[in-house]
Specification:
The protein is mainly α. It is built from 8 helices and no strands. It is globular and about 45 Å long.
């Protein structure tokens, strides 16, 4: 029996010691630097192609593969971005009921984001936070 995407996102959030609400833990984990394998965990959970995800982090996939082999840690900025995207996927799964549905929403213009495509905002922490806030608005009845 395979692990569902829902439990996989929750498992990952627990594994990395963060929750959507605990910003202090998130900052602490980012400062420590995540092992580069976190990148591959995120690609698996989110369904984002590795090459695209590497582009969001501004690191080549080749470098990430090397880091993984060497068991290197990512810098705090990339670690924070990965943790924030994990958190975003956790929230998106809650709001939309599944990763696939959330991914479809990410790729369509969102009124609450000025008709920007949420997926294109994953390149910055501020963009990720804007998407998260939009998900919270949708969750509470503002269907953007």
């Amino acid at each position: 029996m395979s692990v569902s995407k829902v439990s996989k996102v929750n498992e990952i959030m627990y594994q990395y010691g963060v929750s959507d609400l605990d910003k202090v833990a998130l900052i602490s984990r980012a400062d420590e630097g995540l092992l580069s394998n976190s990148f591959f965990d995120l690609a698996e959970v989110s369904g984002i192609k590795r090459e695209e995800l590497a582009g969001f982090l501004n690191i080549s996939l080749k470098t990430l593969l090397r880091y993984s082999k060497e068991k290197k840690r990512l810098n705090s900025i990339n670690s924070e971005q990965i943790l924030k995207i994990f958190s975003l996927y956790h929230k998106g799964e809650e709001v939309f009921g599944g990763i696939e549905t959330f991914n479809k929403w990410l790729r369509k213009p969102a009124y609450g984001l000025g008709d920007r495509i949420p997926y294109e905002l994953l390149t910055t922490i501020s963009g990720i936070e804007l998407i998260y806030n939009e998900l919270a608005a949708i969750e509470y009845g503002d269907f953007s």
